[in-house]
Amino acid sequence: MDVMPKWAEVVLVPLISLLMAALISALVILAIGEDPIAAASLMIEGALGSVRGWGYTLYYATNFIFTGLAVSVAFHARLFNIGGEGQAMLGGLGVAYALLYVGWPHWSIGLVAATLMAALFGAAWAAIPAYLQAKRGSHIVITTIMFNFIASALLIYLINEFLKPIGQSDPSSARFAQHLDLPTLNSMLTGMGIKASKDDSVNVTFLIALVCAVGVWVLMWKTRLGYEIRAFGHSEQAAKYAGINPVKITMVAMLISGGLAGLMAINTVMGESEKLILNSTEGAGFIGIAVALMGRSHPLGVVIAAILFGFLYQGGAEIALWTSIPRELIVVIQALVILFTGALDNMVRMPLERMFLARRRSKTAGPAE
């Protein structure tokens, strides 16, 4: 029997960790001579106080949902995939090839093609470290780190040698056809007769990210494959004894993980820049690790954590714009969130477990007295 109830595991532990991170962040802001209450108010107003703020918050959250889900699937198989950054880069390459060389007649058909290519390229880039782990014993952490740098170098080479238009100095591909621009949520609401704002920052990819979250939930908790992945993650020896093939699970989990990371490129490449550019991932592959940790590798938790980090990104931009607080402070806050929800998880969990255990014992001993 679990010491803590499920709601405390999913909600209370991350909430307390987040509050502790916020408290220390406030002390850091005080130490540099700024008002933490004013800074927090500005962050909330800039990220959540307007439709424009919500738009950018959800735009960033879309990226983090994809990379958070990618890390979560690998986590369930006890695989630490920190190559989401490189897999998303290659996903962007897949989007570019899908949209530059085929004359799709409508954005919806182009979106299907871009989605398939992004997932395929991301999965292919994850397949190599997965094979090295499954067959050669190479540690997945080391290989995925290395493949991030290889992906970056490969992308620079392909853009400059093959994708960049002749005579263009900007290291980027040609712009995709204008009719392939993804519709924003604002334009979709307007098309349905619902009066909306003029914010165009969040596009239809956000809905795709939510569909992927539901899909991961169905996969992990409603299918045999998901059961095998989770069983393998809990105990490799027990999984082997039950007839689960560790090579198959390692490969499948990493292919799904890489495919999800690659899908992030739909938002950044097709939706935002509308062409393939360098550094379109902007660190989202690494933020996905924090999102998965904070979300307890559950799709609902990942979505909530992704929105939180989207809030930090957008709110941090507002702070850097309107105050003397440096933008890097948001990196410090993110690091504190990761520290408390990951490395120092037991510092919060263990006192709560003792509290719930004492409460259960008191209830059990009560009637006997």
Can you describe what's shown?
The protein has helices at residues 6-31, 36-48, 51-76, 84-100, 107-136, 140-163, 185-191, 205-222, 224-234, 236-241, 246-273, 284-294, 299-322, 328-343, 345-365. By secondary structure, it is an all-alpha fold. The protein has one domain: ABC transporter involved in vitamin B12 uptake, BtuC. Helix 2 packs across helix 13, helix 3 packs antiparallel against helix 11 (246-273) and helix 12 packs across helix 13. The longest helix has 30 residues, at 107-136. 44% of the residues are buried.
Helix content, binned percent: over 70%
Number of strands: 0
- Highest CATH level, the class: Mainly Alpha
Helix/strand order: HHHHHHHHHHHHHHH
- Low-pLDDT ranges: none
Q: How would you sum up the global shape?
A: globular
Overview features:
369 residues; mainly alpha; ABC transporter involved in vitamin B12 uptake, BtuC; globular; single chain
